[in-house]
Fold these 2 entries.
Entry 1:
Amino acid sequence: MCGIVGYIGGKQAQQVVVDGLARLEYRGYDSAGLALVVDGKLATAKKAGKLVNLRKVLEEEPPPASTIGLGHTRWATHGAPNDPNAHPHVDCGGRVAVIHNGIIENFAALKAGLLEKGHVFGSETDTEVVAHLLEEEVGAGHELPEAMRRVCRRLEGAYTLVAVDAQDPDVVVGARRNSPLVVGKGDGENFLASDVAAFIEHTRDAVELGQDQVVELRRDGVTVTDYEGRPAEVHEYHVDWDVSAAEKGGYDYFMLKEIAEQPRAVADTLLGRIGSDGRLHLDEMRITDQQLREIDKIIIIACGTSYHAGLIAKYAIEHWAGLPCEVEVASEFRYRDPILTRSTLVIAISQSGESMDTLMAVRHAREQKARVLCICNVNGSTMPRECDGVLYTHAGPEVGVAATKTFLTQLVAVYLIALYIAQVRGTKWGDEVFAMVQLLATMPEKVEKVLETMGPVRELARSLANERSVLFLGRHVGFPVALEGALKLKELAYMHAEGFAAGELKHGPIALIEEGLPVIVVVPPRAREVLHDKIVSNIQEIRARGARTIVIAEEGDDTVVPYSDTLIEVPAVPTLLQPLVATVPLQVFSCELATAKGHDVDQPRNLAKSVTVE
Ligand code: M6R
């Protein structure tokens, strides 16, 4: 939540900062703003709404040239999304400018103290206290880096801060507690950002900042300390994707591009993990085979779409690895008393590696001595660093707020983990694991095949653009697919959409069925006869009550034809792998329907891609 960019170098800071913000807009788009240091003064501009509004302001009143500055794109927490609450925030004298991602929990007490001292506030944000606290510190003669350290020692909560001092045109200072912040190291220039995407066109050399660190960015170097000023250890890395991956590449929306990239993303996530002997090699997980043998329970924690991947993982883990597996929404996990031991493996699934709910659940699990593994898409993010092990998905950067390709790659990752545990613990014969791995390897072409047949799904979506509600039904792994379909439709089309386990229907939800209500049903493969036949009965039950049935079934499944108002065929695959092909039509459906309603599918209202506050 909130995108942050800081720059110091030889280029025009305004351009670098605004271009960086454009790549971070997925993190929040309630307002945008920037501050530049110009001849001992600050030049600031900020505007409510998307970045385009700030661009207009900058066109109408271009600020003076500057080679040092910072910028922010906001997802509002404290204070309405209006101009005064937009970042940057400045102190009383207009000397210090600050941008912030996170929540300063003790801001009310700090603000009261500052008001008593006569500071004047111009916004309702928690962030502004930092500007005034820095004002006091630089006013007392401390240089900005030391001022920041002194201020951070007084702050509670989760935050990333970046500040400039008009009287020091040679330094940008950042601080990090919990919320993400990375450094981009250039030649005679350096960058700070919430995500490498902001500076990827300038440099691919990055530095990951740790907890409670302050970074001092100068044109010729970067210094990182802890809050006491002691030199801190940092992790440097090279970003393995380039600027083209973070661009739309001719598509109208990132989401469309990301849906289309799924075959490659699935293939990349499998790459290098299947040995020539057909055995799985997941050494990077950093959890030994012996440790895996000692596990007696798995708990999966995640939010949103990642939680749906977790629900599917449960079926795979219990079936292949023979271990009990619980799945829980991360935001609930640490507020009950989960029973965790050294033999519990907790798997955190997070695309961003930054979701605060999941991060807090990870910390709680580690405090209880459980081993924690994460499935993550973003190298350099917080969760992989804090977990015992990590399995990266190789989806590449996902910019659209709605998760698509990262969901499919999370599924690949959970299948790999489940099969790997089965291989290590011997719960499946080697040849059974091998056969399933071979099938997994065919999934990129199967997903490609689904994408090639999406014309009728788009047409259907456009025809339903004026509906008020859509229901989704599934059984077994089709149930989480139904939940995911409903989530996509809610977040993109702002429509009432709900996913149900088809068996639950008669326990209440069937009352929702009325004449013409679109109901999308995910039908398991015919090979799972009992499941399959039960859902075919469910389709008949809802149809008898007037529902308009939209059925997703494997190709050649004639049994569903008589009960389907619309039939969407997907390639035949084993039941556990079906979510990889059955989810794709639902993504395309929601994207097209939302577009037909005139929505910006990359930036749905009220949302941000990384939810870095609880
Ligand atoms: O980065 P994470 O995977 O931890 O994010 C979790 C959810 O916030 C995320 O999946 C969200 O539900 C997406 N917008 C869904 O499309």
Entry 2:
Amino acid sequence: MSLQLDTRQRAMLEEMGVRVWGPLLPSMGELDDVPASPPRGGEAAVPAAAVAVARPATGVVAPLRAPAPAVARAPAGDIAGMDWDTLEQAVASCQACGLCKSRKNTVFGVGGQRARWLIVGEAPGENEDLQGEPFVGQAGVLLDNMLQALGLSRAGEGAQAVYIANVLKCRPPGNRNPQPEEVLQCEPYLRRQVALLQPQVILALGRFAAQSLLQHSVADVAAQPLGRLRGQVHQYEGVPVVVSYHPAYLLRTPQDKAKAWADLCLARGLMQAASAA
Ligand code: URA
């Protein structure tokens, strides 16, 4: 696969630590199995003020909503029929698991509702919980840079637009790993977001996103190293899914950024094929 990169995209890749003068894309046969992304707890918290400077203004952040009257959670069948605003309201008032007790804000997602790309992360961290927007810490800065290298942005419109959401809409205290029960309770929300957005490609970042999206299509997905799930095209509800490393993992393991770039290029190829069809 050849790469046509303009100066700005090259600069972005350099910033990500991906060398643009060398062979950018390892052949799939060269990709090692490496451990899936480690717990999010290692992701350095960034003070909200610092983040506000580092992160580009999106202009598309939904205003933080006043807490709605609490309800445990609508039955999955009801969620499957909700429109976007009703779904967002349902998430804002959700009490389906214990995370509602410690959250400051629910984190529904950010980006254009007509986005053709859907990025799925794991769960909000401290900054996301405070700001009500996904990926606003250091990992978010890296994610934004990776997306920008493809000409994409959470503030983008049309072909540039992405939507960013998480498996969990509430922060696990202390950034601990999501519990199976929490993933189970939150799953209908992401499923409905996918149905309403109808993206042309989903990028699943990290092992929790991969496990949640591929649990019905990949046998024993929880036992698969992330490295074995990437480099191929999966499906979720009829939408192609590309698995890649979580940006927090890439911050700790910069030598894998080239593989993450290969994953982005795989997803971009799917998008280009879908557009040409
Ligand atoms: N990590 C995630 O997986 N999601 C966020 O929103 C922030 C950090």
